[in-house]
Amino acid sequence: LTQQCLESVLKHSFQVKEVFVIDNGSRDDTPEVLKKFIPLFQSQHIHFEVVTNQNNLGFGRACNQGIRRSTGEYVVILNNDTWVMPKWDQVLVGKMNEHTVDCIGPYFYEGEAASEDALLRLAHDFTQRNRNSVRKHFVPILMMFRKSALDQLRFDHQGLFDERFFVTYEDTDVKEQM
C-alpha cells in the first residue's frame, strides 16, 4: 500500500517539495521498499525522509513527527492506503484559497478499484454526480493544512494531534481558533 501511495504522489504531484514517511514499526519489507524511493523523489527535487519508529507509536504521534519536520507553506497528512489523483495538490490549495480556509480534506470513495484508471473513472463519475452538493463530513485519509495556521492554533497538548488516540478519532482534537 505504501508503495502504491508513494508512486501516486510521484506521478500526480506538482507542488510537493518534501515528503516525510513515518514508518511506525513495520515488520515487513517496508524499510527496503522505502529506500527505493529516495532517488526517485530526489530526481524530482523533492526532499524525501523516512522516520523509523521501532514500535507503532500511534497515528497521532506519527502525524506530529512529520508535521514538526515540515517547512513548507502547506502540510498534508496522507494515509498510506491512499492514491492521490492528478493535480490533487493544486486542487486542494486552490480550494483552500478560494474558500479562505486553513484546513481541507476531500470526500473519498471507499470501495473496490482494480487500478488507478478505474479509480480515476470512479472519481470523475462521483464529481459529476455531486458537482453542486457540499459534503460536511469526511474521513481524514488526506488533510491539508496551512502551516501558519497550525503554528497559531492553541491545543491542549503539544503538536497537532492528541497522541492519546491510537487509530481513530485523530481529527477530533483540532479546535477552532476564536
Q: Would you write up a description of this structure?
A:
The chain is α+β, with helices and mostly antiparallel strands. It has 6 helices and 5 strands, in the order H-E-H-E-H-E-H-E-H-E-H. The strands form 2 sheets. A 3-stranded antiparallel beta sheet has the order 3-5-4, sandwiched between helices. It has a two-stranded parallel sheet with strand order 1-2. Helix 2 links the parallel strand 1 and strand 2. Helix 1 packs parallel to helix 2. It is globular.
In short:
With about 180 residues, this protein is of the alpha+beta class.
Shape: globular
List low-confidence stretches.
134-140, 168-178
What is the helix tally? 6
Rg, rounded, reads 16 Å
Mean pLDDT: 79
Helix content: 25-40%
- What separation lies between the terminal Cα atoms? 39 Å
According to DSSP, the number of beta strands is 5
Give the oligomeric state. Answer: single chain
Strand content: 5-15%
- For the largest sheet, list the strands in their spatial order: 3-5-4
Largest sheet: 3 strands, antiparallel
The helix/strand order is HEHEHEHEHEH
Q: Which structural category do the helix and sheet elements fall into? A: alpha+beta
